[in-house]
Design brief:
The complex is a heterodimer of chains A (218) and B (406). Helix content of chain A is 33%, strand content 22%. With 218 residues, chain A is an alpha/beta fold. In chain A, strands 3-2-1-4-5-7-6 form a seven-stranded mixed beta sheet, sandwiched between helices. The longest helix of chain A is centred in the middle third of the chain and has 11 residues. In chain B, the strands form three sheets. In chain B, strands 1-4-6-5-9-10-11-12 form an eight-stranded mixed beta sheet, with helices on both faces. Chain B has a two-stranded antiparallel sheet with strand order 2-3. In chain B, strands 7-8 form a two-stranded antiparallel sheet.
């Protein structure tokens, strides 16, 4: 397994327009496949995927986000990851993407199970609450951590189910989800070297990006 | 008694309307006895005619045609002065040069529905067997019948695949019927403020309107033309009731509140003391000038019968299995006639069929009628959807594409 940034097929001068985690996700998706992006925001990732010949669809909770996506010509519907995924049939997509949204769902476990029911594979990224800066703020500062990427206070944040990379790996084990590829990005969006042990990832990964598939019979 | 004078007699003579029903001020496609329209009720309607308007030019590939399906009481006069009322076309804010439905880019068609009263065969048309208006002898028509007739028109125009079928309300039902019946002939579809079936509450409102028409002694079992009368009071009441369902509590409150009409104090009578009453009476009386009462009965009935899932074993998704059409579904937050939940059910079915679908709910307090009004966010979405569909269809983009992708 090797990590290649910038993304093959995209000129280096253009990769700067995209978020690193989006480039990483795009690299995990086989060209020509069908993708559902759950919580697609303004459609940046979807647009990147479509530019690579991927048939992309999106779900977005906020009306403003949906309307901006539709105005960009993207196939996006208004919906809620917690309540609307059940309406999608089994195996409808090759990949279902949940980018920076897991921690904002009411039932992360049910959502994760649904992702891998609807899609053959799931790609999940989330902010790592085990990141050293988070730990330090809680340990030394004694208050709920706030970072550049997660600036909301505890009382107005939409993120109600924070987890660490370690927690997530444990959940995947519990519900028999196979981890095909895992990447942690550091504070600067650079991949943490893969030859380092898990605890390093959990400490120095600011976010985790995971390519998942259904596990076999245990 | 002032309340009985409330709805004035129409100023347009019934002869004018009868003339328009047979000899419309628009293009007409006639179909002879050899080309019957096969109706759902089992009747072969022949001969019949379809009155329609077109705007713009069909391109050499015949790939830029957009069919607009009109709502219950509208007609083919989308972007030209209405021949009877003298008012601007009903979608002049949407259809025109530089507007989302730009007739410099697209060839735009709108046909009066079968059962209508603006030149397509309907109860107000002359029955060739009797030389008199059809009246209630006209067979009951359905939304699929309307679409079947439109498909015959599109054949006549030599168009194989429509670039887009677009419509709101009853027009949206026709859009959905087009995609269910002729998926390969519809490249993209824009069903707006509609549903895949008419709800019990909406059927109830329609029944109220029909009963109002039929309770008018001037209706004469639909033979008012023979009696040189017009059930204008009944039809006006039907329109007033329906009009309330097209608005919203917030819109009515914003527009009228409890404001009085040309007076400071209540008159302690049943005169139109409130502005909202006066407004509704005006809506009722202006409607009877341009619309045929029997046609209103037939078209409301057609909507009542509409149920796509019912035609596909009760499973909506089956209506759209394997469909390649690109959809953009639009609803409005304050629309309680065709609420967002109806559009959402459609979107779920389209998702289950793996259709390429976008769905936007537009925030507005203007109610169901919002689809006819200037709502910028709505216009942006229609424009963008057509542009991206046009790119996929190989139509010239017209404008420079996304600069960031260059």
């Amino acid at each position: 397994m090797q990590q290649t940034l910038p993304l093959p097929g995209i000129a280096p001068e253009r990769t700067g327009n995209y978020r690193t985690d989006h480039l990483l996700v795009a690299d995990m998706v086989q060209p020509g496949s069908r993708v559902l992006d759950v919580g697609c925001g303004d459609g940046d990732l979807l647009e990147l995927l479509e530019s690579r010949g991927i048939d992309g669809r999106g779900i977005e909770l906020s009306r403003e986000g949906v309307n901006r996506c539709v105005a960009r010509g993207l196939a996006v519907v208004q919906g809620d990851a917690d309540t609307d995924l059940v309406n999608y049939p089994d195996d409808a997509f090759d990949y279902v993407i949940l980018s920076q949204t897991l921690q904002a769902t009411r039932q992360p476990r049910v959502v994760l199970e649904n992702l891998l029911r609807i899609g053959h594979r799931a790609i999940v990224s989330f902010p790592n609450f085990g990141f050293w800066k988070m730990r330090l703020q809680l340990l030394i500062g004694g208050h709920m951590p706030r970072t550049e990427n997660l600036p909301a206070t505890w009382y107005d944040t939409a993120n109600i189910h924070f987890c660490t990379i370690k927690d997530f790996v444990q959940l995947c084990d519990e519900i028999n989800v196979k981890m095909e590829r895992a990447v942690a990005l550091d504070l600067y969006g650079r991949p943490v070297p893969l030859n380092l042990p898990w605890w390093v990832w959990n400490m120095f990964g600011e976010q985790g990006v995971f390519l998942l598939s259904r596990g076999g019979v245990k | 008694m002032s309340n009985l004078r409330s709805v004035e007699s129409p100023s347009i003579h019934s002869e004018d309307r009868a003339h328009e029903a047979d000899h419309p001020t628009s293009l007409v496609a006639t179909f002879g006895v050899d080309q019957p329209l096969k109706l759902d009720c089992g009747v072969d309607l022949a001969p019949f005619q379809i009155a329609y308007q077109t705007y713009g030019e069909l391109n050499a590939d015949r790939s830029n045609a957009i069919l607009i399906c009109h709502a219950l009481t509208l007609d083919q006069h989308v972007a030209n002065v209405h021949p009877m009322t003298g008012k601007p076309g009903w979608w002049e804010n949407m259809v025109g040069r530089g507007l989302p439905l730009d007739f410099d880019r697209y060839f735009i068609i709108c046909a009066n529905v079968i059962g209508g009263c603006m030149g397509s065969t309907g109860p107000a048309s002359t029955n060739p067997a009797t030389g008199k208006p059809w009246g209630l002898d006209f067979p009951v028509v359905t939304i699929p019948d309307m679409v079947r007739a439109q498909a015959m028109l599109i054949d006549r125009l030599g168009i194989e695949t429509l670039f887009c079928v677009v419509g709101g309300s009853m027009g949206g039902m026709q859009v959905l019927q087009w995609t269910a019946a002729y998926p390969e002939r519809v490249f993209s579809a824009l069903p707006i403020a509609c549903a895949t079936r008419h709800s019990a509450q909406n059927i109830a409102f329609h029944e109220l309107g029909r009963q109002a028409v039929m309770a008018d002694p001037n209706w004469h079992q639909g033979r008012y033309a023979d009696n040189t009368t017009l059930p204008h009071r009944g039809l006006a009441v039907a329109r007033m009731a329906a009009h309330i369902t097209y608005l919203s509590d917030a819109a009515l409150h914003r527009k009228f509140g409890r404001k009085m009409q040309d007076r400071e104090l209540p008159t302690f009578s049943f005169d139109a003391d409130f502005q909202v009453e006066s407004y509704l009476r005006y809506q009722g009386s202006s409607f009877v000038e341009r619309f045929d009462a029997n046609s209103y009965l037939y078209l409301t009935r057609a909507m009542d019968y509409f149920d796509i899932a019912g035609d596909h074993g009760g499973v909506l998704a089956k209506a759209f299995t394997g469909i390649k059409t690109r959809f953009c579904v639009v609803s409005f937050t304050s629309d309680w006639l065709f609420p967002t939940s109806e559009s959402r059910a459609l979107v779920h079915a389209l998702n289950a069929s793996s259709a390429r679908v976008s769905f936007a709910e537009i925030e507005t307090d203007k109610g169901h009628d919002a689809f006819l009004l200037d709502v910028p966010e709505f216009f942006d979405i229609i424009r963008a959807f057509l542009q991206s569909a046009g790119k996929a269809r190989g139509l010239g983009s017209g404008e420079s594409g996304n600069g960031g992708q260059a």
